[in-house]
Amino acid sequence: MSGGRRVAVVAGGLSNFGVRSATWSELVQEAGHSAFGAIRNFSPQDVDSLFVGAAQPERLAFQSHVAPMAAELLGFEPSKIIQRTELACASGQSAIRSAYAAISAGLSDVAAVLGVEKMNLPSMAEANTSMADVLDRSWDGVHGATAPPFFAMCAQRHMLEYGTTAEQMAMVSEKNHRFANSNPTAQFYSKTFSREKLLKLPMVAPPLRLGDCSSMTDGAAGLLLVSEELARKYTDTPVWVRGTGQHSHFHNLSGAGSLSSWPGLRAAAQEAFRSARMEPKDIDLAEVHDCFTISEILEYEEIGFCPKGKGGQFVADGRSDLGGEVVVNPRGGLLGCGHPLGATGVAQAVEVLQQLQATVPAARAVKGAERALVHNLSGSANVHSLMIYAREN
Amino acid sequence: MSTPSEANTATTTPGPAASGSTTRPSSEAQSADRPPRRTDPVPNPLPYLLDFYPQEDPKFTRIAPFFVALRKGSFTTTRCDEDGSLHWPPRVACPKCRGEKLSWVELPKRGTVYAFSAVLGGAPLGMEEDVPFVVGLIDLQGAELRLFSRIAHTKHEDCRIGMEVELETFDLPDGRVFFRFRPSAPR
Ligand SMILES: [Zn+2]
């Protein structure tokens, strides 16, 4: 690491994800119960800081100043740092990175993280409107730019330049949905999707079909991070933050470049591996941002799990599945779990915690996993955020 | 940055549609458990904070000349006087050098499609009527600029990478002006 204090993840939990009959506040309470309800030796007074990852509560729940609202709901009275983090689809990981930074710097000893989004509204057109203002709304959103057409263009160029196929993209979705069938918190826990079925679903933004796209989802997740000296007070099996990296590359789509390569992810991943003193081959499992199937394929390539242009072949060969060299999205991914923006990054970290503690069901367990990577992109893949965790300090 | 050569007076901010009518609680309407019903008009469903189109009046923006030019049929942006970098969208300070000495320059009105897709559902408010519609990234011909735009008057199945498109301008109901692209007419 880069000289600060070591930071441990000691507990985590989440609400069920899906189209939930629950409000923003109720989702926070559910995740709070799951994440902070049964921690050994834990008292709410221990929490000196709270970081709330929430992308658009103003738009989607008509509520701002949400960090103190969450603190009240969770029974915390933070005295060091309380804030919300917003980085669109990476708002949750942004909260974890902030908690990590605060503890590493000595500004906090016990930091709670809560990621949450309520996206299913009586007026879905209003929710769609809010998704379009993640992009440069006056110059890109105004023309109808939302995530599906943007990632569809990435798929179009990747297919043209590297020969990636619709069937390879469906294999990503099939794998992640199969993993979601072992995750009762997943939006599509009880739904099965074969490759054949996925390839017949309606187009959303050509060449992307419904099964290539993650969903509008309600959900929340919580995580507890502490300093090294407190880690074993709360658990016998802490998981350690070993490295992190982030890169912001552009915002207006005029800066998006080739679409078929994501140099910002390459840069962020290199920084994460450098700070963790690891390489891609050291990673046993990866929770990466499969907001669309093409995203996961590009992520294999830019993170360095496979050579550039070979991402489609990588999934087709089963190299990102159980038994492959890196198990990608065993939680079920955004495709299988749904994508409540602020909660996603935190839920990915909860999966990593449980995988490294060997407490997940066998159907998705990565046996003997020691090291894990989490990746979130945000917006039009213009920002990439990564964290690397390990069982060993 | 140069100042606008003429003030754009055609625009207005979206205002509430409400008349000045007052609310009168009517006693006969109030039964034992039910609160009084709202009697004043429901506000405009597309208020300012759901409106994607940029404000173009110089009262609200420093790039009003873009819209003045667009209304006259010119497609423009800013270029840095110091380092020559071409901006999109128009800026008031150069992202490369932070300098404020910028000039308005004409952009080509023709381009070729670099990538495209279509929105077949899930459109934002105000665009639901347009569905299905085509969008794409367009390389302007003769300029170092690739920008995102609606591609109107065409279907997804009729579009190709490399096809030529041209600028089209249009007026908004409230008097503002904006642009999009469409397949080029043969030259
Ligand atoms: Zn400059």
Structure, explained:
- The complex is a heterodimer of chains A (393) and B (187).
- Chain A has 14 helices and twelve strands.
- Chain A is globular.
- Chain A folds into two domains: 7-122 and 217-239, Thiolase/Chalcone synthase (Peroxisomal Thiolase, Chain A, domain 1); 144-214 and 242-390, Peroxisomal Thiolase, Chain A, domain 1 (3-Layer(aba) Sandwich), CATH 3.40.47.
- A ten-stranded mixed sheet of chain A has the order 3-2-4-7-1-8-12-11-9-10, with helices on both faces. In chain A, strands 5-6 form a two-stranded antiparallel sheet.
- In chain A, 36% of the residues lie in helices and 18% in strands.
- Chain A has 393 residues and is an alpha/beta fold.
- Chain B has 187 residues and is mostly beta strands.
- Chain B folds into two domains: 55-107, no CATH class; 108-187, OB fold (Dihydrolipoamide Acetyltransferase, E2P), CATH 2.40.50.
- In chain B, 4% of the residues lie in helices and 26% in strands.
- Chain B has one helix at 64-71; strands at residues 76-80, 102-106, 110-119, 133-140, 146-151, 164-171, 177-183.
- Chain B is globular.
- The A-B interface holds A 124-126, 128-129, 131-133, 136-146, 148-150, 152-154, 156-157, 160, 202-208, 252-254, 256, 259 and B 50, 52-54, 88-89, 115-128, 130, 133, 135-137, 145-150, 156, 161, 178, 180.
- The structure holds zinc ion.
- Residues 80, 82-83, 85, 94, 96-97, 99 of chain B line the site of zinc ion (ZN).
